User: Fold this.
Amino acid sequence: MKTKISEQKQVILKKFINSGINISPNMLECVLKLDNPIKRVNILIKETSFIPSFKSHLTETIVNEISNEELQRALKRALNKPPSLPLRAEIQSKVVVSQNEPTAENFKQEIAPMKVRQISNPSMPIKINQVNPKSSSAIKTPSKKKTPKIHESTKSAFAFKPVAKDYDFQIEIISDPTGRLYTNGGYDDFYGLTLDKYNKLRNLMRRRPEASSATNINNIYRLSNSVEISTVGLVENVRQTKKGNFLFTIEDLTGKISVLIQNNSNNLEYTNIIERTFNDQMLFVKGSYNPGEGGRKGIIFANYISKIDIPTDFEPNISPDPLSIALISDTHIGSKEFEEELFKKFLKFLNGKSSNKILREYAGKIKYLVINGDLIDGIGIYPNQKEDLVLSDIFTQFKRASELLSEIPDYIKVFYVSGNHEPVRNAIPRPAVPKKYCEELINLGIKCLGNPSLIKTHNVSTLIYHGESMHDINRLIHDLDINKPIETMKEFLICRHLAPIFGGKTQLAPINNDLLVLDKIPDIFHTGHVHINGMGKYRNVTLANSGCFQAQTDFMRSFGIIPTPGIVPIIELDSLNYFQLDFKKID
Ligand code: D5M
Ligand code: FE
Ligand code: ZN
Assistant:
């Protein structure tokens, strides 16, 4: 029995030492008195890492700060003191604003303090002081780490040993429109664009098993009897009849036909789809064809409708390595509303200078950072913008941006996609910012990309699209608005196009290759532009809108937009678990 206790004591002591925690003999006895002390010690280490006042000495005062009620009670019993102190769950909710949809299961987890997203390996936090075992293929990146300049080092008991530094970059640019945007400048290019869109979307639709037997529209017109048929095509002119049924036309390369779908309880699923459908989306329609009589054209009475969508069994790729990607956008450097202090807090976090151990652990895993457009405020982008600028020329704005971004540790690869404030043409697809503006960024190793771009980092693909067309979609779908960017993003995936509306506010470039069709399903889909953050999942695709680092401008006020600056989505590439850090609430 005695040996068992002393063995346990050693294991426990080792765990504390490995975690950089000092414990007095008295406290150690107290921990040993707990049921299952080894398991409890893991919880204790994790719990204490959330306590801002914890300076690596486990004391009675610290015990009072523990949020896990059961553990706190047990420790107090061991210390012979009555349990009476408040819970500290607030500490966690202060830092992490949202995670993978919380489930009852999450909250039941003994180990996971309330509101902290689950870590796949519960023992991970105690490894924070240890160098992560390198995978055999991983080669250490050259160590040319800069000294962080903007923040004094917090007197942390823990050295920052970022796991991400132990891995080489694994990057593939799957698609980038830069250099592929040639146009002849004529109307023919728009025709070519529409034709290409049609062909690509039709091919995607025909991969749905139900759509493989779809008939061309001219063949349907040849039928003289009422018969069951199916077809695919681009939708036009969706409207509701006096009786509330939905009527629209669908067009392929051979013709155009009217379709009616009755608004009754049998068709609820399909009327929901059609209520969210607008011109130029690809639809599959099945129903009974009714040949016209007396010179009237035939019509399809639909009993089934679908969009291309993402297969329900879509399995995203994950990274074999424990790394993360952080997503930001819309910093608007140069604007007087740029939230520089918040942005510096983010940089401080990336440099492992957070006082919270879990935050340092999160930071240490970040291997990739995406800046999804509007890095700088630009000039002449909106009326009276001059009044909002503190840096009124684009070169000074980029210079300031380089100064700030030079603080990012160089084992993190940064991708920078052009938004509508960058000095490139407004129509999408949009090329990368030319070198003449951002040479300093390029010299920092930042990869400039066009909008939209698809990248692969450590096996996981991320679609980066600034999000210009989100307003157009929100206007046309009754239950969408700027405050719910994730819902809008789902619509892009469902129709498999990033700017499905032609003739809206979004300017589309006349090129004969439609680069906005989502022919590849991304594992992560990232937008910005609306300045309102959000995260979610759709059929296993991880969705994030990265909000902004800019406070409300008069221009936004005129639209009634209330931005959410300083909230950064982070996605773990090895699990696709996600969370957001709110730098307004982090010191
Ligand atoms: O966009 C700044 C904010 O203004 C952001 O919340 C989107 C919104 N915005 C931009 N353009 C439009 C249009 N056309 N309609 C409605 N709201 C809009 P930024 O791209 O940073 O200037
Ligand atoms: Fe913006
Ligand atoms: Zn924008």
